[in-house]
Amino acid sequence: MAFGIKKEELAEWKRQIDAGNIAFLTHYWLDERFPHCHTVTKVGCRDLKKLAGWGAEYGLRKEWIDCRTGGYSHFDLLGDRQKEILTKEGLYSHIERFQL
User: Fold this and answer.
1) CA angle at residue 88 from 96 to 3, to 5 degrees?
2) Least CB-packed of 7, 18, 47, 79 within 10 Å?
3) d(CA 49, CA 46)
4) E-strand spans in 16-93?
5) Taking the mean position of all CA atoms in its chain, how far away is CA 73?
6) Which domain of life is it from (predicted)?
């Protein structure tokens, strides 16, 4: 279950993806499969080859892309890896806002 994001933030994430950019969206999240993770960052791009290449820079495998037939395919970043990648990408506002 996702919460803690505004419609405008989701719309901007989708606009960035549609434009062919690597786009980041962090929000609160609850999933019983990951009881110690309370946030997720979705990193998406319309160009799956570009997204896979971006992920490879961080040791993420292309098989881990959540491929969506309707669009908005993305990686899900969780836990320590989430904070590590957000830090390397300079997305400190995500870290501060969600107290990662």
Assistant:
1) 40
2) 7
3) 9
4) 23-29, 39-44, 74-77
5) 10
6) Bacteria
DSSP assignment, residue 63? Answer: G
Residue 69 pLDDT class (50, 70, 90 cuts) = confident
Q: Scan for tokens 């390397």, then name that residue.
A: 88
Whether 5 and 36 have beta carbons less than 8 Å apart is answered as no
How far apart, in whole angstroms, are the C-alpha atoms of residue 5 and residue 2? 8
- Please tell me the distance from the alpha carbon of residue 43 to that of residue 53, in angstroms, as a whole number: 12
Pick the closest to residue 10 from 30, 22, 26, 28 (CA basis): 26
Report pLDDT digits (tens) over 1-34: 567 789 999 999 999 999 999 999 999 988 889 8
Q: Are 39 and 98 in contact (CB under 8 A)?
A: yes
Identity of residue 41: T
At 2 the pLDDT is 65
Coil, strand, or helix at residue 99? coil
